[in-house]
Prior knowledge:
By secondary structure, this protein is mainly alpha-helical. It folds into two domains: 4-61, no CATH class; 64-225, no CATH class.
Amino acid sequence: MRNLNWICREELPEIIKKVKYRDVKREARRAGCSSQTGGIGRQKKQFRRAAGDRASGMAAWKGPEKRYRRQKARSERIGMGRLKEIVHRHLEGMELMTRVFGDWPLPAIAEECAEAEISDVIEMIHTLNQARNAYMIEEPWDGDGADDYWRDMERYADLFGLLSEKWPRECLQIFHHTDSGVIFWAAIAYAKHPTRLAIEPLKNAIMSGQSNERALRAALRACERF
Length: 226
């Protein structure tokens, strides 16, 4: 019988797209190989080497195109109506790498947004935060996927900051959200786009014992200096 070490080097690249770490041993047995792997640590190391990516294994197949498809599918599932249409229209024609890793034309997107899109942006941040938390539980080894969610939340937080300059009072509704992750991104937004109207809500959030106190205090200092 052929040893699993051999199949990991020679045949695993052919089946690697269909299986994960826990499936390698089973697939090898089906192929008529012995189960003497030299330990699960070596098995994972060989898996990563065969994948061509020592850092994250299956991430070798998560190229920019797949990331953008996943990014688009997330926004379609959320179903934000006009906000989704505005964002997708501005992303059309952009290079794929720019869509995934680059800067979006947020000022142009914010210019087209109406007051009704404020709640949609807040809900988008909330949904992305929940999805990222769930993804980190399901796929804790995939840091790249978690980074994709983080990048999206950062973009929508910047968009919220731009909207807060157009509708400063209306945007304060974000502090009534029950998701602490949304409050964190509100603090990030107001640190970049400060307004004195946010001082009192930021103080209340700090007094309520929010877990993101450091970010809230940074935003408060920025608003007090504004």
